[in-house]
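Predict structure. Chain length: 187.
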Amino acid sequence: MSRAAYFLLATLCGLMLAGMTHLSAVLAIPWLAENDAFARLRSTLSADRSELVAAPGDQSTWLPYPDPNVAVATCAYSLDEGPVRVSARTGPLFQSLSFHARGGGVYFAITDRAAVRGVLEVVVMTRRQLDEALAAEDPEDPSRDVRIVSPTREGLVVIRVLAAFHSQRPEATEAARSVACTIDREE
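Prediction complete.
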């Protein structure tokens, strides 16, 4: 082999190693970040209420470019003490809930169109908690809860409420702020 072939091989190996290192670093960022969204919202674990992250017309937010017509609230959850019940009262404004695994992406989303009698309730649980709930359930009277299995024990619920008109901004802010995330003791 000539020197040029060795140089070309060494260059290709170096580029491959650099690419793998870069890809590993990018994929590790969510797990190594100390001030991620979950860490910022850790106080909502025991608050039982969502925390407003962005309100329409309010520029004091930690989101970089908030939508001026969408109120965004979040609450963190931990399934260590039991399933978490997320309850939202719906109204005339469009509302959506998205469930995010810690260090991962969205694993479930639902809108206010799935509400029953003006209330949208979702129970987040682990696979084991779901199995226990199903085993304890009365076959004659099954639960009507929307139950979802979280891929991780910790995560976030992001609530978005759209204010289509400027006059609906306070109503959207209040709707986002009123979502409850509580430990479900009934299961």
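Summary: Residues 3-32 form the longest helix (30 residues).
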